[in-house]
Aspartate carbamoyltransferase (Bacteroides stercorirosoris), 307 residues
Amino acid sequence: NRSLVTIAEHSKEKILYMIEMAKQFEAHPNRTLLEGKVVATLFFEPSTRTRLSFETAANRLGARVIGFSDPKATSSSKGETLKDTIKMVSNYADIIVMRHYLEGAARYASEVTTVPIVNAGDGANQHPSQTMLDLYSIYKTQGTLENLNIFLVGDLKYGRTVHSLLMAMRHFNPTFHFIAPDELKMPEEYKIYCRSHGIKYVEHTDFSEEIIADADILYMTRVQRERFTDLMEYERVKNVYILRNKMLEHTRPNLRILHPLPRVNEIAYDVDDNPKAYYFQQAQNGLYAREAILCDVLGITLDDVKE
Ligand code: CP
């Protein structure tokens, strides 16, 4: 089926095609392309942006939405398996958007149903719809995805958004800078992925004005408290890097600051008014990227969405 489980399955052509589709939806967000369809949003983990933007996207396309955001209020709290839940919801919905705390849950769900599954985040693994909106945001702000210096900052161990982003960027000759404390470094499997796909990367533990001087994209991330088994360790690293306005004075004019949000403390509030701050527009781009995803998994093409 046409599930979106990982962005690694998208070719360069497919990514550029999805960006073109998102552009169409930004120009004309309110459409009737999904009239008569039902979109289920199953959120086994908390969310603000992903769930609400998928639901808004479905509503703007004329679909109806069912789902839950509190798994304790569902039969999974009585012991129903994920497999049974997915098989049940498949009888009601045309698309299932699912966030789950287990890595691989979206892949598993896609194997037990013929209804398209959209992975809205599976543990520390992948967040492909976030990546589509990140790519769209990078494309809009830089005019290209090619040959960029992309700095990933913060929790590179548990941050699923950075894992997905680096896989998607393999087509575009990026240079990555991984800025993380030792406890939160990019996992070895992703560094192996970079090496086997010819992706250049440099690792740093310092986060300073000098280090980010030639950045095109500064991608800040939250330290993912919910993934720590030892909360004392979280307390030690939680405020490891904080971006402040002063650090941006000598950065490139085209630099844009992205953050998947929510932020906790890693971007000072005074940065919000800096023209290089782009994280709220980035979240808005999520609506258009997700309209494109909902259409694509149902086989609606770019030609169908062009007005
Ligand atoms: N970026 C993101 O996934 O945000 P939410 O957790 O609020 O959905």
